From TrEMBL:
SUPFAM superfamilies: GroES-like (SSF50129), NAD(P)-binding Rossmann-fold domains (SSF51735). It holds the Pfam family ADH_zinc_N. Gene3D superfamilies: Medium-chain alcohol dehydrogenases, catalytic domain, NAD(P)-binding Rossmann-like Domain. This is Zinc-binding dehydrogenase. Residues 171-275 form the Alcohol dehydrogenase-like C-terminal domain. Keywords: Metal-binding, Oxidoreductase, Zinc. InterPro entries: ADH-like_C, ADH-like_N, ADH_Zn_CS, GroES-like_sf, NAD(P)-bd_dom_sf, Zn_alcohol_dh. Its cofactor is Zn(2+). It comes from the Bacteria. It comes from Actomonas aquatica. Belongs to the zinc-containing alcohol dehydrogenase family. Residues 32-105 form the Alcohol dehydrogenase-like N-terminal domain.
Length: 332
């Protein structure tokens, strides 16, 4: 294992009970042969994960949730520096700036820590010239890009009208990726005024509150979207989109309740309800390329930066919708 000077101990966050954390001392982990030790420079909140886990609810319906939660979890949107590499790693080198491009889904420590080990195949190198807030949420960019991959199976978004429901972090990324992929028009939908305004700054051509009176349900109307992405997971919102979209509505938000699809949606031609796809490296590389091209500004999602030890305060900002994302600094 090649390494630079690394301390023996570090600090990491542990959610010990609903609403309670410890900013605890722990040993710096040693990477396995296929792993990398990452010095975490910045880690972004993932609001749904943070709100659920700190709030005492599992992220997905039916899952078990036990405390203390896995150390460093649910932190997974991270940028850092390679501090050491395992003996089998040839793709990355010490000192290189990297981002975690996918959450492995394994029961393992997360990036809410000063150091974390991660498989080399789940990291991608990025430029060290850009601020941490521009890179930390690449994993979210990858996740959203997967929905565009699904729409690409039906002809894609280039030259088309695209509706995005829910202008939280995922929706604001979707607005930008829609323009990156050549959408002719992007309709952002959210009840929060500030988020609609930010969507316009990030490339939306039109915004809606989501009220039926302001956008009549008519798939043949010139205002209808060609395709749409739902980033809310709310059944009434998905049903709202189905009645205002000509070809397909892709699901990104975690759906918790049944969605009603009635016979009228089958004709004209019928509108397709598209499920989610698989996380993949190509989607992550597309997100990174969009950042490099200047068509995806992930730092625009960061409302504030806080020390990681102020995690509960940061999640409170998310809960009250006073922040879109919080960038946590493990070293502050």
């Amino acid at each position: 294992m090649n390494a630079v000077s690394i301390p023996q101990t570090m600090r990491r966050l542990v959610i010990t009970a609903p609403g309670e954390i410890e900013w605890a001392e722990a040993s710096v982990p040693t990477p396995k042969p296929e792993e990398v030790l990452v010095k975490v420079l910045g880690v972004s909140s993932c609001p749904h994960w943070d709100l659920h886990i700190l709030g005492g609810e599992p992220m997905f319906p039916g899952q078990d949730l036990h405390y203390p939660y896995l150390p460093g979890q649910p932190g997974h949107e991270a940028v850092g520096e390679v501090a050491a590499v395992g003996s089998a790693v040839a793709s990355l080198r010490v000192g290189q700036r990297v981002v975690a491009w996918r959450d492995t889904g394994e029961a393992r420590p997360g990036f809410y820590a000063q150091f974390n080990t991660f498989r080399a195949v789940d990291l991608l190198p990025v430029s060290a010239e850009r601020p941490h807030g521009q890179w930390a949420s690449v994993e979210l960019g990858m996740c959203v890009e997967v929905s565009f991959q699904r729409l690409a199976e039906l002809g894609g978004v280039r030259g088309r009208r695209v509706a995005i429901a829910g202008l939280g972090p995922a929706g604001l990324v979707a607005v930008q990726l829609a323009r990156h992929h050549g959408a002719a028009a992007v309709i952002g939908m959210d009840p929060v005024t500030e988020r609609r305004e930010l969507a316009l700054r990030l490339g939306a051509t039109h915004v809606e509150t989501g009220e039926a009176a302001s956008w009549p349900a008519d798939r043949n109307d010139e205002r209808a979207a060609d395709v749409a992405i739902d980033c809310t997971g709310l059944a009434p919102v998905v049903e709202f989109l189905l009645r205002r979209t000509r070809q397909a509505v892709a699901l990104f938000g975690v759906v918790r309740d049944p969605i009603r699809y009635d016979g009228a949606l089958m004709w004209g031609p019928g509108v397709t309800l598209v499920g989610y796809g698989d996380h993949n490296r190509t989607a992550a590389e597309t997100a990174i390329a969009a950042v490099e091209a200047g068509t995806l500004d992930l730092s625009a999602l960061i409302t504030t930066t806080l020390p990681l030890r102020d995690y509960v305060r940061g999640v409170g900002l998310l809960r009250r919708k006073e922040a879109i994302k919080v960038l946590f600094d493990p070293w502050a």
